[in-house]
Amino acid sequence: MRRLLALVLATSLCPPALAADIRPVEITARAIEAFAVGSSQSRFGGLDFVGGFSFRASDRRLAGVSGFRFREGGGSRFLAVTDTGWWFEGRILRDGEGRPVGMEEARIAPILDPQGQAYRSKGRADAEGLALDGSRVLVSFEQNHRIEAFDAAEPLTALPTPVAQPIPRHELRSNAGLETVAVAPDGRAITVAEQSIDKEGNLFAALLGPAGGLFTVKRQPPWHATDGAFLPGGDLLLLERRYEGFGRLGMRLRRIAGEAIRVGALVDGPVIMEADLGHEIDNMEGLDVFVNEAGETILSIVSDDNASFFQRNLYLEFRLVEDEVEVSG
């Protein structure tokens, strides 16, 4: 009897089992040969189109991909989050010329709350930004505005810890909050709001950490910031989207000098590429940068299909052309 009581007591003192439900997902992909619809054009502003694909998943829960980062060099294994509260990981498949053609080894799992349970409401699970920060994975959330850190070794089963960020919560709009979180080559972590603005009409942003604080990004309506990633040299690329009604969708990339990002600064930079529905775009929400085996800087951009029949999950890659910074459709 004593042994039974001891076993019951020990069991009651153990933490609850994690609710991680990790499931494999089959991905089907369709190649995108040209970025401009009906054209063989390959140069777009400061970028050359490498390739891409649209994709569908066997599990309907895989929708709304909003943040995307590679976990290793060379553009292979990736980690992503969805705005419905799911982790998504896998590997990019490439053809003999290195062009992306699909995904393999894909898995999904719910993002866990501090009690080890899956979130029950989208208001708590609305993950938008993702960044790798050494031993941590940083995830930014909208609606219930916050940044959380997860163990990078096993993020799909990790519990979150809160990360302080300097933007006042009352300044963050319900569905236009912490859309971007990114880590620079020098280790500085930043966040940028999608459409939460200060009194001068500029986007709230912040450097994270003990020496951090607020800065702002020049807002240029009708564009909304949806993600950001740092180039190897330290400049920030800001992915932006515009939506002005049916058929009037656009995406663009702005390049912001890394040395300009500091507490109290207002930052801006040139547009290096802009596209509309004359190109293979959708609701473009995720951005990452990697250097391939040839030493080229490659941009990876993914879309959020909003779980809509009328939208697509896209994965696109572009090669950065250093001496081209003028906007071009």
Automatic annotation (TrEMBL):
Residues 1-19 form the signal peptide. InterPro entries: Phytase-like_dom, UCP031900. Residues 61-306 form the Phytase-like domain. Pfam families: Phytase-like. Keywords: Signal. This is Esterase-like activity of phytase family protein. It comes from Aureimonas populi.
